[in-house]
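Hi R.,

Here's the input for the iron/sulfur cluster complex you asked about:
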Amino acid sequence: MAVKAEFDIPVITNVPRTPGLREGAMAHSRPFVAKADHQEPLGFPGELVEDWHDRAIGRMGELLGEYRSLQVFMDACVKCGACTDKCHYYLGTADPKNMPVARQDLMRKVYRRYFTFAGKFFPRLVGAVDLTEEVLGEWYSYYHQCSECRRCSVYCPYGIDTAEVTMAGREILASVGIGQKYSNEIIGKVYKIGNNLGLPEPALADTLEGLEEEVKEDTDVDVRFPLDEQGADVLLVTPSADFFAEPHVDGLIGYAKVFHQAGIRWTLSSHASEAANFGLFIGSQGNMQRVAMRIREAALELGVKRIVVGECGHAWRVAYSYWNTLIGPFDFLDPDYPAPQHVCEATWDLVQQGALRFNRENNDDKVVTFHDSCNVSRASRMGSMPGGQFLIPRELIRAACNHFVDMRQETIHEGTFCCGGGGGLLTDDLVELRVKGALPRMQALHEVIEQHGVTHMAAICAICKSQFTKVLPYYDLGMDMIISIHQLVGDALELGVER
Amino acid sequence: MLTALIAGLFYLATATLTIGLARKILVYARTPAPLKIPTTPAPTSRAGVAARLLREVVLFESLFKASKWTWLFGWLFHFGMFVALLRHLRYFTDPVWGWVAWIQSAGIYAGFAMVIGLAGLWARRMLVDRVRYISAPSDHLMLALLLGIGGSGLLMTYVWHTDIVALKAFVQGWMRFRPGELPADPVLVIHLLLVICLMLVFPISKLLHAPGLFFSPTRNQADDPRERRHLPGGA
Ligand code: HEM
Ligand code: HEM
Ligand code: SF4
Ligand code: SF4
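And here is the predicted structure with iron/sulfur cluster in place:
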């Protein structure tokens, strides 16, 4: 039942291979450009400004002064090539400009021309070029073929993180009037309505009520989905896809069951009904801070003692790594839980305390593998040990399932492959890129299906879940293979038994 | 005439290298790192970070994960160059420090390691289509330059010996701004002119990877954003 496509779907081979270069293979790929309505609420000009050249170079100079990462990364690359076969978009498309170093070079060649001695006087020698409209077009195309997944930065001897360059590229583009419609429109919705999906408060309340009824029908237990409850202990902030998209919503049901069973008073907030923060993707710290601030406001307003973040990769990166800087300090939280937690950490704590009991047999129809999400794996942590972000989700799966296997070593943990839809690329105008970029993950999944009869792949990221739902059928696999960890947890959890 | 030229160029190159590098390091140190971006899993303490950087410098840990061939040739080249440079300290120290004298004999293999490593890296740059694609002329020239230095050095060690005693007198004098006569061996002159080129391009080229590594936020930040509130400007 493979989906028909306008483009060639990559073929899964017995042994994964690194393709030879196919120049220009993805030169046509570019997402829709933001209209003035999408740009202006974020503080960007509505269309290409007249003095775009000077403004772009000016903005680049500012960013070089504001981000040591960008300054060092522009200088330090030795073109060793270690990263060239590490990007899923290169592996899936064979377009050489999707090799991380080549993606950086799109900016580096301009950096050299305007900011270095060698590039000013010997441009040919060091491959420096003027910033032209054509170069800008290339930036737009290829900085939207990077999911900011940081896989390249693991392997680079200097830790050069192409994601930082991509973010800077997008920020420069947006600041001269060429923003990306998908991301910027969504950020606008968060400002206006409070979440990415543009789900207003009454609709949210309705949805949650519906979920209460659904769980009651299934389990005969009154599991609550509270909204804006003053004085709750825990504020749960989760990606808005959890409210109704499949398979996300089953994860939300899982969180609710865990809180119910542990006797924790929790609430969602209509003011902060979104964990996602696309300000990260567009490289705009100002917008990222503005989006995040709603969560601090909601926590203070509701008087909660803990903040827990639902299953979402980049949201957890922002929460774990940036919130303390952007919207901290969190001195108003319970000293026992002084920092925002991941829902997997919260559930795992409860498991260790013996507060939850599981009927693993409930999941015996499944052989489960786990897809590490890039932002969780390479840009954050769970628990107190480095690498806890790999252990805790797996421990939770093992607590809830009898049959778990991992995929090939190079494709998990810090070496995990992006789902292909992260970093603001989860949009229908980029389907070809998304399908091709998913190849390495599909390849690894295919292997465990063949070898171990895997039936389900669990994930803890809303983008991963939506992306896989979309692309699995292109590879002849069922879209319902993808599942939330908290669905597994929720399905195995014994509800209502004495603790 | 030759002596004066080489000595003068060396003063110029030394000044360029020192000032250029100091300027760059100052820029790196002063540019803020506004957000926490260590590539995780990362050490949670400063001591752990120091150990991570040490592994990157000494073992090329990340490169080892990425590509065994590049790692092998790259490590041979750098380690060989490092030992050969230590061996060179005998020109600059008088009396020669004990450990410098001690590494002299083992040191001759270092020159070969350096040249073999460079040759392997250059072969990779020309033969692997992906690496060829990302190479600018300057990337090839840099390898040629270093091969020239290593090759001319080895020629002196094994084929056309130069007058080491006179060379040392020259170097010692140069350090006191009174350079003596330089032996006029063509290979030595080539060796030295190439070294001068290397010193001149160091602060304006990709050789900035050496200081850059220490300032790379993905490697030099500790994974402790929960415990310590990272404020803009902080390391
Ligand atoms: C802190 C000290 C240094 C460290 C950690 C370091 C590390 C590395 C690493 C990991 C690579 C990539 C792998 C490879 O191609 O070898 C590399 C490349 C390179 N390094 Fe260094 N390096 C250091 C100092 C130097 C110095 C002092 C020089 C020159 C005098 C140098 C010259 C080069 C060159 C030319 C390349 C590119 C080789 C190629 O074209 O493939 N490095 N360095
Ligand atoms: C002040 C600068 C330098 C001087 C005066 C100098 C001088 C010499 C001399 C006289 C030799 C022959 C040694 C012998 O006959 O035993 C030599 C060898 C060599 N030089 Fe240099 N050199 C200088 C800088 C460098 C630099 C910067 C490099 C590397 C980047 C280098 C790499 C080598 C190598 C690899 C050899 C061959 C192996 C060995 O004998 O250690 N030299 N150099
Ligand atoms: S961050 Fe990820 S998507 Fe972007 S270049 Fe690196 S590996 Fe590719
Ligand atoms: S691994 Fe790092 S240094 Fe090597 S080519 Fe890629 S970005 Fe440049």
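One thing worth noting: Residues B 81, 84-85, 87-88, 91, 107-108, 111, 114, 149-150, 153-154, 156-157, 161-162, 167, 171, 188, 191-192, 195 surround protoporphyrin IX containing FE (ligand 2) (CB under 6 Å).

Cheers,
M.
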